[in-house]
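Section 3.1 - Work completed
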Amino acid sequence: MSEASDSGKIVRLAASSEVEEGSGKMFEVGNKKIAVFRFQGRLYCIDDTCTHEDESLSQGEIIPEECAVECPKHGSLFSLATGEALTLPATIPVAIYPVEERDGEIFVRIGDE
């Protein structure tokens, strides 16, 4: 279910148990592929596609020292908190999305496009 708002819509993604600590999972919302990561008990949501080459970031490894995910193809790091491309070869950030957990479910706010 989703509810409309001035800055997009809130979409239920999954049960909280579907995203395990230290891992990520890809979800499709409309025409977007987004990745939700659980790291140190907190949820992060970013675009799932690496901006260097079209690789799924949800398949990457979380790098704890950087609070980042490593692209599995060429090793670029993306900040889970800001979406910033931290290392080459990527130079363009990925979008981030507000994500929250309530009543055992994960919700994300996706902007209108």
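Second construct:
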Amino acid sequence: GPADEERAEERVDAQRTVRRLAAVLASLPRRQRDVLLLHAVAELEYAEIAAALGIPLGTVRSALHRARAKVRAALEAQE
């Protein structure tokens, strides 16, 4: 019925989102990807990321900001 069709559509949308996210992560410069993953997945604080990667705090902030903007843009382009 209609509910099954809606679930199937949601699954297709989710798969498309995962593919798009994977592609945008793969295309990020390594530092931006590292900072984003350490923050979003490992849940490290900015200072911990700076220490782990041996980079200044300001670099962590700017890399995270750029990475998030690219991910957002990729997801918005899909809608």
